[in-house]
């Protein structure tokens, strides 16, 4: 059957065809944008973090008695908890901190080189009040200078992450430089710190104890590979045994923290993926019932064709090629819809621009679905024997 | 009535003749409607006016008082300092005003001191809070003034939880080891969305358990658990000096609300803020450009950038999905009516008027609507459940009241009619002669 003839037959049923095309166009637009959002979310989640996600456990704790949230009781409680945790088999290191890395927001402060505030100021740098095992827990590499040790407790010495040091001091050697937060004694490799900080991998580590634990504090535990579940099981009890007046949060592995940070993006991407699946299903149902109905309507025509010598394969191809043509035309309009939708979505959320190959890929997917759905009704059409089909003529 | 029953019976026969196409049409329609409803439910709760009787009079006030010399900083901070609050209050223009922030603590009763304390959500605020947002009291009343006092107002559920009864005015409670007297118990009350505090996108969270006077919180160093922004604060962390430090520095954590009963009052208050900033500038303070914000309660989510973009994006997509489903169902029902055309034409040939045919079509629409409505509600529940588990911040928004259900039912009838409109017209008005020849 020539394209010309199919188009003629489509034009005879203008409204039905228009409805079909509209539906196909919107479907393509939605599927393309959903795929785009899903892939953007996946990239966001899978970006390198500089942390051994499966080997770090975190748990937020908060003393339920107000006096224990202040010094000196606070330090004493923390060291008792850490000592107990370090005895659990499979634990390589454990440390407390005011906050964990890989978070949405949290405590941050501005940071600048003391005599160059105007040029070197960085607005939001997450800071970590913590202890000497933190580098082991996070698994950071020393880039320059030295790591902090127990001797640095309470001093104004700080460690910066590599990217932050570059930002503040440029090509100069940062070691020994003085900032508003203290003297830089070392630089460690980058890790994902806070999502909404000035930069996600900025971080400043000091050993100044927390003034108070009004918001609680975090215990971070580095475990040997494959040991995280075994340690996780005991952790809450160990912490409670060290100090009973303690509100203990859920023990989270670092990759769970990460999923929490990107939850909204992952959620939306999943929702849209589900919706895309439903759309394809709807497109398939529509293609199926259209072909089904059409096959019945065209019974006589098919019968005559068969009587005049058209093979079954030929009739099958006829029915399928009409589906293909409508899908292709609908998808053509769909490319417009998908750019339009992309622009409207970009006003609400951040969504990447549509790459050229994606609509084409979706078109292929759509064709595949439509073919699959048309197959059965098309087969029925070919099965009609010429004698039955032409009986009423 | 008899005609209706007869028509319903006819639709039933026509469905029974070809159940699969009918079921598919219904499936597609209810899928689209269900998705749309689940999204519309969240959208409705997120964007409704929670206090329609006075939303026009409630405003959140902010001034751009952050220290520092920044000539292009026009967005005032989301939270204000104690000093700002003092300057903005006491003008006499608003009929109610209160500063506030949220916090949390551990509480237990005096009788049951051995028990493990349970965590409670605190709202640290001033006496007018309850008047501002029409919060009903079950027992007792608000504080007589804004001074520090060891007295709290608690919610009904908190009273039931700690004392197992509601009339507990005069009872004492330990909150973070400090002794407070209960002076008021609220009746059931919730604001959804919780527009009096949307900072940190927490507008879908429930109202707090315990209300504590602001001055007391400053004295006891209770801090905000949403946002604490320190600007140029030089403090050694010594808790003894906290009350003094927090009251005299840019230790920002407050949201300040006023009730302005008429447009003139709004104007007066705006002028008051303008004068205030001019005075501050004259005194060498308020170094950033003047940028006073007086946001109405209904605009506050936008102003604080606390809208849920994921829901907005999904709303757009769900509406398009509904469009696809309606178009599709319409297409399918056209097929169905065309298949029944012979029957329709025969009826007309035997003398049925077009109006009688319309009656039958309406009965058909009614029948489909009922089925589609039931299925759509089912799909909407499924959809809500999915969205709630994927976006946990929407969990509080999933309920339906009877008004919503009624609107949804009406919507389903409307859409079902729309879907059958073209097919119905086509079948009842096409030339008889040609149809019967087939």
UniProtKB/TrEMBL annotation, chain A:
Domain spans labelled ABC3 transporter permease C-terminal: 274-386
Q: Which UniProt keywords apply?
A: Cell membrane, Membrane, Transmembrane, Transmembrane helix
Q: Where is the MacB-like periplasmic core domain?
A: 17-237
Q: Where in the cell is it found?
A: Cell membrane
Annotated GO molecular function terms are: transmembrane transporter activity
A Pfam family (short name) is MacB_PCD
Q: Which family, according to UniProt?
A: Belongs to the ABC-4 integral membrane protein family.
Protein name in the entry: FtsX-like permease family protein
Automatic annotation (TrEMBL), chain B:
Cellular component per GO? plasma membrane
Q: Which InterPro entries match?
A: ABC3_permease_C (IPR003838), MacB_PCD (IPR025857), Macrolide_Exporter_MacB (IPR050250)
Q: Where in the cell is it found?
A: Cell membrane
Gene Ontology MF: a single term: transmembrane transporter activity
Query: Residue ranges of the ABC3 transporter permease C-terminal domain?
Result: 316-428
Membrane topology of this protein: Multi-pass membrane protein
Q: What is this protein called?
A: ABC transporter permease
- Per the UniProt record, the source organism is Rheinheimera tangshanensis
């Amino acid at each position: 059957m020539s394209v010309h003839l199919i188009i003629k037959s489509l034009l005879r049923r203008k409204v039905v065809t228009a409805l079909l095309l509209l539906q196909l166009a919107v479907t393509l637009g939605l599927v393309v944008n959903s795929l785009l959002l899903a892939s953007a979310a996946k990239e966001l989640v899978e970006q390198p973090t500089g942390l051994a996600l499966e080997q770090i456990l975190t748990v937020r704790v908060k003393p339920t008695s107000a006096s224990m949230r202040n010094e000196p009781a606070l330090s004493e409680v923390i060291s008792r908890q850490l000592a107990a945790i370090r005895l659990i088999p499979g634990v390589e290191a454990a440390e407390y901190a005011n906050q964990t890395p890989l978070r949405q927001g949290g405590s941050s402060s501005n940071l600048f080189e003391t005599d160059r505030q105007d040029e070197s100021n960085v607005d939001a740098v997450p800071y970590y009040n913590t202890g000497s095992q933190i580098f082991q827990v996070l698994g950071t590499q020393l880039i320059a200078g030295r790591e902090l040790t127990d001797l640095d407790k309470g001093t104004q010495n700080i460690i910066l992450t590599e990217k932050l040091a570059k930002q503040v001091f440029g090509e100069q050697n940062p070691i020994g430089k003085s900032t508003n937060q203290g003297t830089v004694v070392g630089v460690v490799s980058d890790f994902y710190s806070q999502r909404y900080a000035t930069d996600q991998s900025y971080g400043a580590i000091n050993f100044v104890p927390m003034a108070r634990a009004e918001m609680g504090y975090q215990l971070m535990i580095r475990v040997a590979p494959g040991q995280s579940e075994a340690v996780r099981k005991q952790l809450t009890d160990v912490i409670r045994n060290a100090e009973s007046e303690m509100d203990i949060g859920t023990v989270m592995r670092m990759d769970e923290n990460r999923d929490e940070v990107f939850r909204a993006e992952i959620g939306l991407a999943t929702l849209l993926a589900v919706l895309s699946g439903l759309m394809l299903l709807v497109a398939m149902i529509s293609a199926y019932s259209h072909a089904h109905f059409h096959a019945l309507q065209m019974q006589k025509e098919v019968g005559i064709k068969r009587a005049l010598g058209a093979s079954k394969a030929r009739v099958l191809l006829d029915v399928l090629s009409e589906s293909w043509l409508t899908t292709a035309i609908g998808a053509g309009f769909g490319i417009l819809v998908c750019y339009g939708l992309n622009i409207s979505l970009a006003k609400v959320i951040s969504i990447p621009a549509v790459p050229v190959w994606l609509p084409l890929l979706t078109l292929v997917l759509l064709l595949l679905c439509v073919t699959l759905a048309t197959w059965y009704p098309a087969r029925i059409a070919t099965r009609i024997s010429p004698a039955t089909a032409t009986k009423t003529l | 009535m008899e005609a209706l029953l007869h028509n319903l019976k006819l639709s039933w026969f026509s469905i029974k003749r070809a159940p699969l196409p009918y079921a598919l049409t219904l499936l597609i329609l209810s899928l689209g409607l269900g998705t749309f409803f689940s999204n519309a439910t969240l959208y409705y709760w997120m964007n409704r006016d929670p206090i329609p009787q006075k939303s026009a009079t409630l405003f959140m006030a902010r001034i751009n008082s952050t220290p520092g010399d920044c000539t292009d900083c026009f967005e005032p901070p989301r939270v204000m300092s104690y000093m700002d609050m003092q300057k903005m209050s006491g003008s006499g223009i608003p009929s109610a005003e209160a500063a506030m922030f949220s916090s949390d603590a551990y509480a237990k009763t005096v009788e049951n001191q051995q028990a493990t304390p349970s965590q409670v959500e605190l709202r640290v605020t001033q006496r007018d809070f309850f008047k501002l947002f029409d919060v009903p009291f079950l027992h007792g009343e608000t504080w007589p003034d804004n001074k520090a006092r060891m007295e709290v107002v608690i919610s009904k559920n908190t009273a039931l939880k700690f004392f197992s009864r509601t009339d507990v005015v005069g009872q004492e409670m330990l909150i973070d080891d400090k002794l407070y007297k209960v002076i008021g118990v609220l009746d059931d009350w919730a604001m959804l969305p919780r527009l009096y505090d949307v900072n940190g996108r927490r507008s879908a969270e429930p109202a707090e358990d315990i209300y504590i006077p602001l001055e007391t919180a400053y004295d006891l160093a209770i801090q905000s658990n949403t946002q604490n922004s320190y600007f140029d604060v030089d403090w050694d962390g010594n808790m003894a000096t906290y009350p003094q430090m927090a009251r005299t520095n840019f230790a920002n954590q407050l949201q300040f609300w006023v009730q302005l009963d008429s447009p003139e009052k709004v104007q007066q208050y705006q002028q008051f803020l303008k004068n205030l900033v001019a005075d501050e500038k004259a005194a060498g303070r308020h170094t950033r450009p003047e940028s006073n914000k007086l946001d109405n309660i209904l605009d506050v989510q936008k102003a604080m950038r606390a809208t849920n973009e994921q829901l907005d994006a999904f709303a757009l997509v769900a509406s398009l999905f509904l469009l696809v489903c309606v178009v599709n169902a319409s297409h399918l029902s056209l097929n169905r009516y065309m298949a029944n055309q012979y029957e329709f034409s025969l009826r007309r040939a035997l003398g049925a008027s077009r109006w009688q045919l319309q009656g039958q079509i309406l009965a058909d629409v009614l029948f489909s609507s009922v089925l589609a409505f039931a299925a759509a509600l089912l799909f909407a529940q499924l959809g809500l459940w999915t969205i709630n588990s994927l976006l946990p911040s929407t969990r509080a928004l999933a309920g339906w009241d009877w008004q919503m259900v009624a609107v949804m039912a009406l919507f389903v009838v409307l859409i079902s009619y729309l879907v059958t409109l073209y097919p119905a017209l086509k079948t009842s008005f096409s030339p008889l002669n040609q149809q019967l020849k087939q």
